[in-house]
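Write out this protein's structure.
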Amino acid sequence: MEEAPRPSRLPRFRLWLRGTRLVQKALSTPTDPVLLRPPSPRIVAGLVLLALSYVVGWPAIAALAAVAAWLRTPVLLLGGPVLYGLSWLVFAVGLLLLGSKSVRTGRALGRLLVRKLAEKYLRV
């Protein structure tokens, strides 16, 4: 005996998502003019430093540990805390360059992304 196909829950989920405050606000808010202009060199430098801090952090420490194991010189492991501190320093300088206005830009970008996703996948 065959079972009848179960009704999809996706339409109900889409309706629920459309009704959330985040999606409603994103759909009703116009695009922020900050996103229409290209970012300043200071913002680009801050974003590059933020990304670089993640590369300098744990991946560099893991690479240093691999090199220390390969060369059989455990003294190199002392560079791990130094690299970790350097990654935090680079991260702090990146945040300093971005400044507090980047919070507004980040929120505007988040709303824009939610709007684009809602328009594409929620069939608004």
